[in-house]
Amino acid sequence: DAGVIQSPRHEVTEMGQEVTLRCKPISGHDYLFWYRQTMMRGLELLIYFNNNVPIDDSGMPEDRFSAKMPNASFSTLKIQPSEPRDSAVYFCASSSRGLAGVADTQYFGPGTRLTVL
Amino acid sequence: DQQVKQNSPSLSVQEGRISILNCDYTNSMFDYFLWYKKYPAEGPTFLISISSIKDKNEDGRFTVFLNKSAKHLSLHIVPSQPGDSAVYFCAASYKWFGNTPLVFGKGTRLSVIA
Fold it and tell me: Does residue B97 surpass a pLDDT of 50?
């Protein structure tokens, strides 16, 4: 199994540009999570999907951020327009539905390091 | 408001000794706890977990202890090895339709010195 795949691994862009991060979850997993890691805030959840449907996007910082999951094997996180404070490492994670009442382990991708100049 | 706190940003331990990483939580609804390990330029990887019905779970050199009354958990690594040097994240969740997002602490950087 290839694990969770994220692309690009590194992205450097200028303020005001659109940025699109991509994620391919583990096959068979029906939950997908987007996290952001910064020194100040640590790992914070941005949004998560179940069966391609967004369940909770309360962590999305602003309207400049949007996420989609058009099918079970692909998700995007878009920032438009990007700002220097968006610089962070963005992780995608996936998991399967656990047994009733038990949260299943989330498997993380390698992350995308975003730098906005 | 941080629901999961790791108050020690870093920890140094000599090879062969015990490493103890601590984690506190504030939300009494949390009933499932996990530890993740993260190496530079990689995503966090699952290490060990514990359900609130237990107070201890072991997996090889790794043991997690849970004290529900104190809302505290700890990860013990015995013996510590240089390859254990990484950032360790504590995470928590609670039952809700079988899966809920994890709430993470900010991490503790463990350095195991040879």
Answer: no
